[in-house]
């Protein structure tokens, strides 16, 4: 017997082998093989929803990508905060102010209290939200604490304080005619033209005296 070639719109019944149209296959099974129709329907594999697994894959990639990016950003910010608050220079210099032999108090809170923190150009070198040049009591100790290795000077400290020391005045005190304003560092008198770099255990005296600075002992 010569086999009949099955057309593309026909299918074979899996139960009886009859050739039927594809569109009529389910109806044929339900009508002719109605006892087995329900079991046949449950045996057919359910086609996966198109794109389901792919969408889950991309969502997973997006989640992990955002997670990694967040971790990197948080780590970077944390590193910057730690770096900005790490003390890399720590110096304590002693400042005394004498007005014709009478001590004048260096106030506490310079570079910390807003009323004693006039210049903010050095703030990015400071730690814990303070200027890198501060006083913490009235002892005259200048505390240098910087997150960057660099030199700081007496004139920079005076600018933070908002005071001036020159030939005409010393921290608000006018120099009388015939008197002199002097800077003495570790017992050595220095000219005003040369700024004083603050170093550890340094003793600085700024004063107004009668006569010339050469008379400072």
Q: How many helices in DSSP terms?
A: 4
Q: How many β-strand runs?
A: 11
How big is the Rg?
44 Å
**CATH class term of the largest domain:** Mainly Beta
Strand content: 15-25%
Sheet with most strands:
7 strands, mixed
Q: Domain count, please report it.
A: 3
Quote the distance from N terminus to C terminus. 135 Å
Shape estimate: rod-shaped
Helical content class? 25-40%
Annotated CATH architecture of the largest domain: Beta Complex
Chain-averaged pLDDT:
85
Explain what you see.
With 217 residues, the chain is an alpha+beta fold. It folds into three domains: 12-43, no CATH class; 53-84; 89-215, Ferric Hydroxamate Uptake Protein, Chain A, domain 1, CATH 2.170.130. The protein is 27% helix and 24% strand. It has four helices and eleven strands. The longest helix is centred in the N-terminal third of the chain and has 33 residues, at 52-84.
Question: Would you spell out the secondary-structure blueprint of this structure?
Answer:
Blueprint: E1 10-12, E2 19-21, H1 25-32, H2 34-43, H3 52-84, E3 89-99, E4 102-104, E5 133-134, E6 141-146, H4 154-161, E7 169-170, E8 173-174, E9 179-185, E10 188-190, E11 202-210
Parallel strand pairs: 3-11
Antiparallel strand pairs: 1-2, 3-4, 3-6, 5-6, 7-8, 9-10, 9-11
List the defining traits of the structure above.
single chain; 217 residues; alpha+beta; Ferric Hydroxamate Uptake Protein, Chain A, domain 1; 3 domains; 7-stranded mixed β-sheet; two-stranded antiparallel ribbon; 4 helices
